[in-house]
Structure formats: C-alpha cells, structure tokens
Amino acid sequence: MAMMTQPNIVFIHVDQWRGDCLSIDGHPVVHTPFLDRLALQGVRFSKAYVSVPSCIASRASLMTGLSPRNHGRVGYQDGVEWNYPVTLAGEFSRAGYRTHAIGKLHVWPVRNKIGFESVELHDGPLHIIPRYSRIHGTRHQDDYLTWLQKETGRPDADHFEHGVHCNSVVARPWPMEERLHPTNWLTTRSLAFLEEQHNDPQQRPFFLYLSYHRPHPPYDPPAWALEQYLQAEMPDVPVGDWVGEFDDIDDGVHPAAARAVYRPDILRRARAGYYGSMTHIDHQINRFLETLEEFPFAKNTWVVFTSDHGELMGDHHFFRKSRPYEGSARVPLIFTGPRDSGIAPGSVCPSVVEMRDIMPTLLEIAGLPVPGTLAGRSFLEHARGESQEPLRPWLHGEHAMGTRFGTPHWLTDGREKYVWFSGNSHEQLFDLIRDPQELHDLAPESPQRLEYWRRALATELAGREEGYVDEQGNLVAGRPL
Prior knowledge:
This protein is of the alpha/beta class.
C-alpha cells in the first residue's frame, strides 16, 4: 500500500490544443491568464510533441509509455480494442493510489477503465458510440449525457442539439446555461472528487485524470467566450512558400486531414470559437486549482497540463490534425510540483519530449518502479534543470493517410524538422529556430542535411512490416500501408 507521503497527481488533459496557444508562449490573440500563472509556478516545455497527432494514438502513447511502433497505432481508427497489460493508471492503482478519470478516454470498449479504479465518462460527440448502442440495443455510454438529462428534466436533452459537427469550422455559442456545458460538468465533478478525497478515512494518495473534450470542435463556448474574440485583431495564418506542392492532394478519404481555403469571415469565426473554447477551459481550470488550494493535500500535489495533439486552423491551408507541422504535432506541456519539487518556478525547458515520456516521469515523481517494457524516458531531471542531454537523438512521428503522398514520417531534434512522404518520397526540411512557422522549405537547397536525415529515418524505420527500408538501408516509397 502506498504511504501518505507519496505525492498526489492531477493530470489535466485537453483535446486539440496547439502548443503555441498560450499567452505566456507569445500567442498574439488567445488569452490564458490562469494557465500562464500555472506555468510561472513550474516548468513549461517549449518542445513537447505527439508522435502520431490524432486522438487515439496519442492517448495510447500517454497511457502506455510506448511508442507507436510498440503500441501499433500509427493513425486514427475507432473500435480497436485496448488490451495493454501495463498502463499509467494501472501502475498507480497497483501501488495503492486512488485513481479516477473524468471526461474523455477515447478507448475501446467504451467503458474500458484502462487501469483506473473508477471513470466518469464523456467522450464527446463520437458517433461510433451511439451507432454501436443502436446496433446492439444498449443504453448510451456517456455519464455527462445521463447527468444532463437528469439535470434538465428532459430525457431527450443532448449536447448535440445545436447541430454543430464535431470536426467542422462552424462556431456558435453554447445554447444552454453555462453550468450545463461539458467543460463545466467536468470541473464540477472534479471538485466533488476533491471533497470525497478529503472526507475519505483511508486518505490514500490519488491520481486524478481530468480530460476536457474541448477545444476540439464543436466550437461552442459560452457566448461571452466566443464574443471576446469575434472582433479581435488576428494576424494572417502562416502559409508556407511550399503549399502549391499539395494543390492536387486528395484528402477526402481522410477527414482528419482536411485542406481548404475558407472565406476570411468564416475563418475568423472559427478561430474565435477555437480561442473562446480555450479561454473557457482556462477559467474552469482556475476554478479547479483555486479550490484545490483549499485542501491540505494541495501542498503535496503535482499538476500536469497538456494536450493530445494540436489544430492546424488554416496553417498552410490545412485544418484539424495528423500533419507533421508544428500546429498539429506540437502541444503545450506544463509541470508544477510542491515547493520541494526541485523545479524552478517560471522555467522553460527546451528538451524535446513526447507523450510516451510522461508515464515514466510521473512514476519517478511518485517513487514508483518504472516497468522495463516502456519506450518512454523520464524527463524529471530536465524539468529540474539538472540535465541538458537530449532524451533521444531525434523524435520520430508519423500519421497514416490515404492520399497519393502516403504517410508523412517526420524527425525533429527541436532545431530542424525533416519530413518524408512514404507514397512518393517527397521531402521537406525546416529550420525551427529561424523559421518556427515552417514558411520556407529548405529541402531543395540542403542536399547534405537531407542525406543525414534520410539515414536517420531509415534507421528508425528499419524492420517495419511496411517495408519502408530496403536491404541497402535506403528509404522505399510506395509501400502499401
């Protein structure tokens, strides 16, 4: 049984939040004062990535400490069973922690607890869930929806009443009372957990996972949050000098990789809805953190904030996620701990870290053994400023796509980013220091750097079942996915 001296963990997970969308990171529009304050209390990672930038695969890396090559999820596919023997929540549960999840899990089967003792589920408008329920004659699986129907006294009440699709750029205000919004519900339930923990005679240390569905579409924040951005001055979205290369790409078969050029007014409203959803969450996180401070156990509690992937929001005429570019693959990551955590308040860590690295880091923080099967590596020394050595020479990312360009594979060391498309061997190279928005493709003028990165990627992909690398160690295009 874990002892009372072990720290508590609060893990705040959001969905589709870009890495640059914090005002403390210099974003020119979105205002996140409370997350900024959290960052000033701990360490912010400026080069945190997800290796497969879409919901399920990213969450698999987080919850298992494995790389995509290990856990097998290299794209987006619903309905694939989660059967991992070692999970983040499972390790904390095994050590005697009280483990509880509220919000989005996006696992299969729907009520799979993946090691948590208890779950209050709200996966958002995932159509596979009601479709499955209708086919098999089972009741809906969403705890928020059950609460909403009871709270309103309407058995037909639904969070989809406004009709805004969960992957569109349409934005409109939340049509009900703000307290009924899924974001508020999650926060309300988290406060109830704190009360229960305080009154629990066992007083076990806890691992609390708060998983907000937003700012993933639908962009439906409360009216006040949307309206404050509708007239805000917004800079043009970055469009690289290379975007013409993708003019004839067919993304219709992969809706998570949409490409479009919208009218300025439509794009402005979508951005307002996206930023408004962030500000709404920022306020609700503050609601939780302020209440947390009222409890004695707050002094021994670590708080983590991150996202499962980003949102391109028009960058290079792309929307949603799955692309290798910064708006899609880079995410915010903040760690704060007790006063004796060893973390310098307000520090910024430039080390490249990934979702798989969070599990071993949290286990080290809790003084728990790190399973030898994990592919991730603890970055606690980096968070404390005790090490500047990279966790790995480069980070490899990918996302399967059904286009003629094939799967984009990418490598980054935080300074450069190399992209190789498996369908046709198209290559890109970006200088992330001088060109963080990836406006200029250096590939045509950098043969030596391209050769270095090709060899590095071949090392990463050697032995893959797709046959991406031949016997001579060369990358092979056109392999079936």
